[in-house]
């Protein structure tokens, strides 16, 4: 399926000379030609980047917006007052280009922490942005990513489309991960904000590559529908459908990020069932997928169930060992607290590219899921050489 934006949205991505490689776009925008309600969820890192601080302020205004500007190669994080001034200057330059108010422009950055934005290049790049292939924006967001990340759902009444980036410093708590979603559905800002926050908790907040929460994590959703006779309202069938479709887009983007972890060779998908609560199930799933010992075992294709049990136990809750069952790609390894005699099947399925760890706690009726990647030699190589 060709990736497209909903009606009255367009985007662009160009090489603005922030990167050395002229074939890699590094500046882009997503524009709504109509006023769009906006919702946003951001990093909980104690040192949020200047763009995050600015966008939080815009979200609190509860006013429509027209655009998101993004640059890669430079995170504009831990850059002090100068960094905030540069974020504001960027916002102003985009607003002047689109003939809109500065408060109608959001900005996002990703890349090296601690360096000031080269504002001469940012200004020159903004002057060249137009409307082009939507994939150009998806490319302009990338840092150590190996592939673009897109998702979309189209219904009879609306479309939801999204792009994301993220490969390293991924342990969202809303690395540098960014997600921009657009829809031509009609929904008010407060309901959209409430919905996004709820869905981020079960999608982006359930992925991990390396346990590091970035200074720049940002997820933004723009909705520019203006047919209020068909507005999506809480509790209706239309709301339930829209929620499921938005969750599908966010989940697809989240899994794409986890799959593209720096140096990754396998996707780890942890599914927890029969937990006391949904929160507990999600916590267990993320503990397992975030364990470096589990990650390295997956890289080595080693069905080391002791590491999975250890990660479950580290959650800090009381579980019953006698009701615990674990399987890897449907090969049982623990059944009601007892190790299953290994006939070689577990080691064989560990060779697959997607490793599904199914955990039944046997103490309730709730479930949760999390995604991550294995931890490889290449991850160390990438991050040892990242700054240079």
Task: Summarize the helix and strand pattern as letters.
Answer: EEHEHEHHEEEHEEHEHHHEEEHEEH
Radius of gyration: 22 Å
Tell me the total number of β-strands.
15
CATH topology of the largest domain: L-amino peptidase D-ALA esterase/amidase
**First-to-last CA distance:** 37 Å
How much of the sequence lies in strands comes to 15-25%
Query: Stretches where pLDDT falls below 50 for ≥5 residues?
Result: none
Quickly name the level 1 CATH class of the largest domain. Answer: Alpha Beta
Helix % is 25-40%
Shape: globular
Rounded mean pLDDT is 92
Number of helices: 11
Please identify, by name, the CATH architecture of the largest domain.
4-Layer Sandwich
State the CATH superfamily name of the largest domain.
L-amino peptidase D-ALA esterase/amidase
**Into how many domains do the coordinates divide?**
2
Biggest sheet record:
8 strands, mixed
Label the structural class. Answer: alpha+beta
What topology does this entry show?
Blueprint: E1 9-14, E2 27-42, H1 50-61, E3 65-71, H2 80-98, E4 105-109, H3 119-128, H4 134-140, E5 149-154, E6 159-165, E7 178-183, H5 189-202, E8 207-208, E9 218-223, H6 237-259, E10 267-275, H7 278-290, H8 292-299, H9 305-313, E11 325-328, E12 331-335, E13 338-339, H10 345-349, E14 354-360, E15 366-373, H11 377-384
Parallel strand pairs: 3-4, 7-9, 8-15, 10-14
Antiparallel strand pairs: 1-2, 2-3, 2-9, 5-6, 6-7, 10-15, 11-12, 11-14, 12-13
Helix pairs in contact: 1-2, 2-3, 5-6, 7-9
